[in-house]
Design brief:
Layout: H1 9-23, H2 30-37, H3 41-50, E1 56-59, E2 62-65, H4 73-80, H5 92-112, H6 119-142, E3 157-158, E4 161-162, H7 167-174, H8 181-196, H9 204-207, H10 209-227, H11 248-258, H12 264-275, H13 279-282, E5 292-295, E6 308-311, H14 318-323, E7 331-332, H15 342-350, H16 358-367, E8 384-387, E9 392-395, H17 397-407, H18 410-417
Antiparallel strand pairs: 1-2, 3-4, 5-6, 5-7, 8-9
Helix pairs in contact: 2-3, 5-6, 6-7, 6-8, 6-10, 7-8, 8-10, 8-12
Length: 421
């Protein structure tokens, strides 16, 4: 006697079908999907736009998937079962709000799953869906039209539905000043998703962990600010229990991996984007989280009202810092200030100092002794440092500021130019 069919059997077949197509970067037709799952072609035509629209894109008669490989089978079942539509508020705003919260939690689930090898892309795909739905819910609440229009003023229609604004348009509309760290954070993740969409790059996980954490924190703040404390995600989230200690060697290995040719496009995007931001945005916790996480020290042995808390270690006295040495572990995210290549230094200084070029920059670092003339792998100065993995010297943003300040003085400029090569 055959075993009874599970209600998820065909869903699981669809999941495996999509994962295979995505891994091979292949498109598929509705007939191929129907043959692989046993669903009718009619059902297969409906599901991509109604249940899987966030992961399936249509191009004529062909379909492609993006991000399904980063979902577990259980997570794909939840997406397919339309759990996102099981809400008390059945208005458009209510459905969008519930969808936003569900996909934010799904993003965290993907990122914290110890079996997910490439965390960052899976997280970004889902947090972008979450943000997009949240902004649409906000615009519904405020009565703001958030659909693209044709030249004659009629709504643009894609696959029978009005085309809504993408996240970049939503965020720019919401933060119209254009200078907010929250907007910079989202635009960074959107651009990064576009760069890594067809690349498997696990080494970037360490490099962008701070931006990913800030995106979640900003989402929570925006959600509560617009819809109230009752919608906060805090009750559904817990601190991630990491089983792997990030050693200095692991960080060096990741840095070396980032220098390989297949990382070039992503690496250059990350460097250029971050370096073009002003210092106030870069240093904001709303753009990128940098923190110590340590056990909270109670006044008494039994006072354990809270297990952990975030603290500003830089604000501690030496005596207070000693007290924290009994901590089980430090999880430390420290920004490396030395990340600018000589070419980037020239580009930034040239914006303020006319005629600045690479030969002049060489004369500058020699004149001011910003770095050794030869290779010194142990060197770490005020403005430059030798970087393993890059196998050369990189410079800090402070070097840019110093050069601009110094070279505005004509006498200093003359003295530098007279420096022998």
């Amino acid at each position: 006697m055959d075993a009874p069919m599970s209600r998820y059997d065909k869903v699981d077949l669809a999941y495996e079908f999509f994962k295979e197509k995505e891994s091979l970067s292949e498109s598929f037709t509705i007939k191929q999907l129907a043959d692989a799952t046993g669903w009718t072609e009619g059902a297969c035509k409906t599901y991509p736009s109604k249940r899987w629209h966030q992961y399936i894109e249509k191009d004529g008669a062909q379909y492609t998937t993006s991000g399904i490989s980063y979902l577990s089978k259980a997570e794909f079942r939840a997406v397919h079962s339309q759990k996102l539509q099981q809400v008390a508020d059945h208005s458009t705003k209510g459905i969008l709000l519930h969808k936003a919260k569900e996909f934010a939690l799904l993003a965290v689930s993907v990122y914290n799953n110890p079996y997910t090898e490439f965390k960052t892309y899976g997280y970004i795909v889902n947090i972008i869906i979450a943000y997009t739905s949240l902004f649409h819910a906000i615009f519904e609440k405020k009565g703001t039209a958030y659909f693209y229009l044709n030249d004659n003023g009629t709504p643009k229609v894609i696959d029978g539905e009005e085309k809504a604004w993408e996240l970049s348009t939503c965020a720019s509309e919401y933060w119209q000043s254009g200078a907010s760290p929250e907007l910079a954070n989202l635009n960074f993740l959107i651009g990064l998703r576009n760069k890594i969409e067809h690349r498997s790059l696990p080494a970037i996980d360490l490099a962008v962990a701070g931006e990913c954490q800030s995106a979640l924190s900003n989402f929570e703040s925006l959600l509560v600010e617009e819809f109230g404390d009752e919608h906060a995600l805090t009750a559904n989230l817990a601190f991630s229990m990491q089983l792997t200690r990030i050693s200095e060697q692991s960080q060096l290995d990741a840095l070396k991996q980032m220098q390989k040719d297949n990382y070039k496009v992503v690496r250059e995007y990350m460097e250029t984007y971050r370096n073009d931001l002003n210092d106030e945005v870069v240093e904001s916790q709303k753009y990128r989280v940098r923190a110590f996480l340590v056990p909270k020290l109670g006044n008494h042995a039994k006072s354990a009202d809270m297990a952990v808390e975030f603290i500003n270690v830089n604000a501690l006295t030496e005596e207070e810092l000693k007290d924290y040495e009994q901590a089980v572990a430090f999880i430390k995210g420290v920004e490396n200030p030395f990340r600018l290549k000589p070419k980037r230094i020239v580009e930034l200084v040239l914006k303020k100092i006319k005629g600045f070029n690479m030969p002049l920059h060489t004369k500058c670092w020699k004149y001011y002794e910003a770095r050794p003339k030869g290779i010194d792998k142990a060197f770490k100065g005020e403005y430059a440092s030798y970087m393993e993995g890059f196998d050369g010297y990189l410079y800090s943003q402070n070097w840019v500021k110093f050069l601009i300040s110094e070279l505005q003085n004509e006498d200093k400029m003359k003295a530098v130019k007279q420096q022998a090569q």
